[in-house]
Structure formats: structure tokens, C-alpha cells
Amino acid sequence: MRTRVKICGITRVEDIHAAVEAGADAIGLVFYAPSPRAVNVEQAKLLAEHIPPYISIVGLFVNADAEEIAQVLQQVPVDVLQLHGDETPEQCQQIAQRTGRRWYKALQVKPASDMVAEITSYQQSGASAVLLDAWHPELKGGTGLQFDWSKFPQTDFPLILAGGLHADNIQQAITVTQPYAVDVSGGVESAKGIKNQQLIQRFMQGVQGGSAK
């Protein structure tokens, strides 16, 4: 099965077109104001108008409550929620019940973490997938750091690989981890929040090469 691709942190219409043309499966919109890739509701509505059918719109939220997320969803046609903060399994369930959306949880791979136990707890709470990202003591994703891919669990549950991925390492990353999907942001940028069409195309070529092995 080919590896799915989400391109996250898109802020410009031309980057939507570049991602779609290159074959991305999902577009990530960041609803977290401290992020340099954040969009407000009005920006997100405009971007969503350029995302065609069969490409998922993923809304990234960090420690937002259910009501706050629901208000965004009233105006932006988000398909899937990416909960990227310190949300507990119970909080994720509450958000899902309030919004009626599928969701997945982003977890940072810390040196001493029992990732299988953490993944299982969110899986049992209704997650559609779990995203594994590099750990940083202060930042919530988008760090450009990568973790030890040998710690990537092998499971039938959909796992998404993130953290420090770019065109030059994505083929190896997929070969080593065999993820359900990969998530890239800074690795296809010329500046924070500004995607580069050539880097997106090279990244997608690397995904195809890794998936073919």
C-alpha cells in the first residue's frame, strides 16, 4: 500500500495548488496562533475553497477546547482534526463528541516513552490514527527535528511519521518505518509558511520511491 502524504502549515493559495498538483492526500491548516504557519478563520475559508474533492482538509489544534474547535468548524470545512497539544484521551473523546469529526493525536517521541502504551490509549479512545513527531521541550511540532526511526512501532494501527522529513531523507524514512502516512511542513519550505513547489515535487518523488520498496 502506498504511503499517504499530508503537507501541513499551508498559508497560501499557490501552495495549495502545488500540493494538489504533486499528489498530496491531505492539506494541513494550523489553527494555533503562536505558530509561524498559523491561519485565521478567514484565511482558512479562502484556502479551503481551492482544495478539491478527495483531498482531506486537516485542522491542527493545540490544547484548544471543544467549543473553540466547534466554532472554527462552523466556518471552515475541516474533515479531520489533528490534536497536537497535551490533550488526554478523555479530552479527545469530548472534542470528537462535540464536533462529530474524526481525529488523530500527535505524540512526541521522548527518549523514555512507552510509545506502544500511549498509542493504545488513544486508539481505545477512538483515534483514527496517531502521529509520531520529534520531541522538543518547548515547541509543539514544526521543529525540523527527527527522532530515532528505529523506535517507530510496527503495528496494524495507522501511524503517521513526522519530524524533520525532507526530500533527501523521505525515501529512507519510509523504508525504515513503513508508516501509513507521512507529514511534512518545514521540509518543503523556502521560508516558514512559504512552500516551495520544487521541494514538494521532490518530496513526493521520494515518497513514491520509498513506497515502492
Describe this entry's structure for a reader.
This protein is of the alpha/beta class and about 210 residues long. The protein has one domain: Aldolase class I (TIM Barrel). It contains 7 helices and 10 strands. The chain has helices at about 15-20, 40-50, 65-75, 90-100, 115-125, 170-175, 195-210, and strands at about 5-10, 25-30, 55-60, 80-85, 100-110, 130-135, 160, 180-185, 190, 195. The strands form 2 sheets. It has an 8-stranded parallel beta barrel with strand order 1-2-3-4-5-6-7-8. A two-stranded antiparallel sheet has the order 9-10. Helix 6 runs parallel beside helix 7. The protein starts with a strand and ends with a helix. This is N-(5'-phosphoribosyl)anthranilate isomerase. Keywords: Amino-acid biosynthesis, Aromatic amino acid biosynthesis, Isomerase, Tryptophan biosynthesis. Pfam families: PRAI (PF00697).
What key attributes describe this structure?
single chain, about 210 residues, alpha/beta, TIM Barrel, eight-stranded parallel beta barrel, two-stranded antiparallel ribbon, 7 helices, about 35% helix, about 20% strand, globular
The total tally of domains equals 1
Specify the CATH homologous superfamily: Aldolase class I
How far apart the termini lie comes to 10 Å
Number of strands: 10
Q: How much of the residues is beta strand, in percent?
A: 15-25%
SSE order: EHEHEHEHEHEEHEEEH
Largest beta-sheet characterization: 8 strands, parallel, barrel
Organism: Acinetobacter rudis
Keywords: Amino-acid biosynthesis, Aromatic amino acid biosynthesis, Isomerase, Tryptophan biosynthesis
Catalytic activity: N-(5-phospho-beta-D-ribosyl)anthranilate = 1-(2-carboxyphenylamino)-1-deoxy-D-ribulose 5-phosphate
Domain N-(5'phosphoribosyl) anthranilate isomerase (PRAI): 5-205
